[in-house]
Specification:
The complex is a heterodimer of chains A (253) and B (282). Chain A has 253 residues and is α+β, with helices and mostly antiparallel strands. Chain A contains six helices and twelve strands. The two termini of chain B are 21 Å apart. With 282 residues, chain B is α/β, with parallel strands linked by helices. The chains are: A alpha+beta (253), B alpha/beta (282).
Chain lengths: 253, 282
């Protein structure tokens, strides 16, 4: 299969670029075309109220974003990512409030996606995903939404999504993460988005005023277009002012 | 008027604490001889709350300017009791507060040793305010002073989550009826809502019934508590949900931000409910 890859990320308005706590993996050139039989990627959204969540989100997606066995071994991956996060933090000279924050733990949402092409002659191929929190996967075929995961409706978004933490005692929910699998065809699109854009996508579809898929496709031709469009949505109050990330995967034969 | 504004560096909020310094604050809390003096307990609780605010504004390697904080003492006189390098400042940014405690004490506390026992651990305890108990209870004057400070603040921060004022006292105002200055203070507003005024009344009597966030004035036993009920704002939705989470009780719309005859735990909980950041992001 051939995968066409795009990843755009824009920090919250008013924040510095390096304060963007969304993390996606792999890091590829936008517009890259990859010929592979199997492909994984991951997206995480670091929680603002905790410290060093950006580091945590980055380590987690880096350690799992190219792994095919995340559904089976998520807890093991979390545990090794936690060790890596701790050794990164240990190098820093922390103030007493920062030390307290570190003890409380870093937190992020998590979405892992895996595509498999078993036999290129088959019509239906398999995909699977793992999701914790409100970063969402959308599966489109010819502009029709076939699946959204783990959330389905815009009213499912709130200020307390499920999160993965470096504080392992806070990860009870990760022992049974939400899993999903489905089938895909050549020509399908898979979108992974953090909460602000995911909520916009669902709300726009629910309101039925615009074709959200087509609109997003048109506005994500380049990073420049995407940034301008997201800023316009923020200014009009149509999207939450938050770090905003989109991964767009198109699959061809 | 929704109390929904996100607390951010662009739109910070403000916490102003009013702390009773009257002579009766040197009596033991809940009137029980072994307990710490009310003034000592109040100062300790306030230092812990300020510490929590500093921690919540701590992000990675910096302290973000999400809040301004002020502490007014009222007793012998009415003035800001922030000291050291912050002396004379009515409001200080949370990072300045972090930078300038009066001192950092070593405190010993017990922690679980993981094997069913306890070990004593020395922890750092920053101190910003010291206990004082001298004078009367000029509550009207301190409410007027709070109004003077926050009138300017709301003008400068029209889109911010509105200031929260927490009055920690053990007695009646003796400089007039506090309802009038309290109404004036509560009438101050940003686009997001009015100033909220919470009252935490420390108990002087271990047998007194603690009344937590009452719904109606009929729930209260005497004139003084009825006045303080009227002085206090209704809890915001976020404060109600924090209260429910911490105390496991249901708090309906209209419950007043008022705790009467609070015991030690009641004071700590009320302070946390009032200061848990509303919707802090950025």
């Amino acid at each position: 299969m051939k995968i066409h890859w795009k990843l755009y990320s824009l920090e919250k308005a008013g924040n510095r670029e390096e304060e963007n706590e969304d993390a996606g993996f792999p890091i590829l050139h936008n517009g890259a075309n990859l010929r592979v039989n199997e492909f994984s990627c991951a997206l995480a959204d670091g929680a603002t109220q905790a410290s060093f969540s950006k580091n945590w989100a980055e380590i987690l997606v880096r350690n799992t974003g190219s792994q095919p066995d995340v559904p089976k071994n998520l807890m093991r991956y979390i545990s090794s990512a936690k060790s890596e996060w701790e050794s990164e933090i240990e190098k820093k000279k922390l103030s007493w409030p920062a030390e307290i924050k570190v003890r409380q733990g870093a937190f992020c949402t998590y979405l892992w996606f895996h595509l498999l092409e078993e036999d290129h002659k088959k019509d239906q191929q398999k995909w699977e995903a793992v999701g914790i929190g409100d970063s969402c996967l959308f599966h489109f075929r010819n502009t029709a939404l076939l699946e959204s995961f783990p959330l389905k409706k815009s009213d499912g978004f709130n200020n307390t999504p499920a999160l993965i933490s470096t504080n392992l005692s806070r990860n009870a929910g990760c022992r049974s993460p939400q899993l999903i699998n489905g089938s895909w065809q050549y020509g399908d699109d898979f979108l992974l988005a953090t909460d602000a854009l995911s909520a916009w996508m669902m709300k726009t579809r629910e309101d039925g005023q615009e074709d959200a898929y087509q609109l997003l496709k048109n506005r994500s031709e380049s990073r420049f277009d995407f940034v301008r469009w997201v800023n316009a949505l923020r200014n009009s109050g149509s999207i939450k002012n938050d770090d905003t990330t989109l991964i767009w995967l198109s699959v061809y034969s | 008027m929704s109390y929904n504004s996100e607390i951010s560096r662009a739109n910070p909020t403000c916490f102003l604490f009013l702390i009773d310094h009257s002579t009766s604050m040197q009596d033991p809390i809940m009137g029980s001889a072994g307990n710490p003096k009310k003034s000592e307990f109040a100062a300790d609780a306030l230092n812990k709350v300020i510490q929590s605010l500093v921690v919540s504004a701590s992000k990675d390697m910096e302290i973000r300017r999400y809040y301004q904080i002020g502490v007014l003492g009222y007793g012998f006189d009415v003035k800001s009791i922030l000291g050291g390098d912050l002396e004379g400042q009515e409001l200080a940014w949370v990072d300045e507060i972090y930078e300038h405690p009066l001192r950092i004490e070593d405190r010993v506390k017990k922690e679980s040793d993981g094997a069913g026992g306890f070990i004593e651990v020395t922890t750092k305890f920053p101190v910003w305010v010291d206990p004082v108990s001298r004078g009367q209870t000029p509550m009207c004057k301190v409410l007027e002073k709070a109004h003077e400070i926050l009138e300017k603040w709301v003008e400068e921060h029209p889109q911010s989550y509105p200031p929260t004022v927490i009055n920690l006292t053990d007695g009646e105002a003796n400089d007039g009826d506090p309802r009038k200055p309290a109404e004036l203070l509560k009438s101050l507003a940003t686009e997001d809502g009015n100033v909220t005024l919470l009252t935490v009344h420390a108990s002087s009597n271990q047998l007194a019934r603690q009344i937590i966030f009452p719904m109606t004035v009929q729930d209260l036993p005497d004139h003084f508590s009825k006045v303080m009920f009227e002085v206090s704002s209704p809890l915001t939705p976020k404060m109600r949900s924090t209260g429910e989470e911490l105390m496991g009780i249901s708090l309906e719309d209209g419950a007043r931000g008022f705790v009467y005859n609070a015991d030690i735990a009641g004071i700590v909980q009320a302070l946390e409910i009032g200061t848990r950041p509303a919707n802090m992001q950025s």
